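Q: Give me the 3D complex with ISE.
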Amino acid sequence: MVLRVGVIGAGGMGREHVSNLVARPDVEVSVVADINVENAAAVAAIAGAHTSTDPLALVRSTTVDAVVIASPDETHAELTIAAIESGLHVFCEKPVASTVEDAQRVLEVEAAAGGPLVQVGFMRQYDPAHLQVFDALAAVGRLQHVRCVHRNTNDQWSRPLEVVLTQSLIHDVHTVRWLSGSEFVSVMTYVVGRRRPVDHLTVVGSLADGTTATLEFVEAAYGYDVEIEVTAEEGMVVCSQPGQPIVRQQHSLHRFVGDDWFGRFSEAYRLEIDDWVGGALAGEVRGPTTVDGVAAQRVVAAAIRSFRTGQPEPV
Ligand code: ISE
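A: Here is the predicted complex, encoded as structure tokens.
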């Protein structure tokens, strides 16, 4: 069987997903929709697909079995709901919605449609280096603390706290939930904002099983760098950029740090979309679900409240 896929959003993520989808013999990317006609045409050309400027018409058409939603964040909830109502399998980029209420609405519509149909793009859990951390945790006893450090290259970006949390730090929220198998119960937010609303962000959290977590984010000047450090009762597990040698030379020690998430997580993007296609063809969802999307959005909402009140806030 061939899965006929429509792709909504022809920006960087739409392009990445189409490039991975065309490598599969069991997928036909039939339509790429974007309000920007040139972007739609450029990404559609990778797959020999048609183009559209009307994403809602795409999800309501009978020419696709499944849809990838990689449009701007604020469109995710409405498009995902429309796709579920059309009976399509959905891969929705994170966040599944911009607010807890909208994420919850997606979950309700999905439940009313008879079960999970949506995989959410929390791709860290497909990254080989993250998976090595996950596997290594089995041998180090109960977790005490998870530290995630997330450095974007986009030094020139100036995003408000709400956007940094829903676009970037939400990945680390999911990483902590996935690695610990536990839920955040409260969070406290600290922001350094001297040159822009958020220069540096730290969210300190406590989880239901007693583990604590620090989630740190910065728009870094030097490169895209994502690290995890887990402290457990019998040892520690540390993960950083994979596949780059450490070079000692002329009284210094070097390791290459890349530019962006496309390079750092290319394998994770490939593996997550493979898993989604396999699930959609089998009529199931195998990766992160809307339940994960709602849970992460609740942590984000509490982190925003904590910044406003200056107090720890329950999730
Ligand atoms: C971006 O939208 C992503 O999803 C990247 O994975 C993340 O690292 C980055 O901070 C976000 O802006």
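A quick observation: The mean pLDDT is 95.
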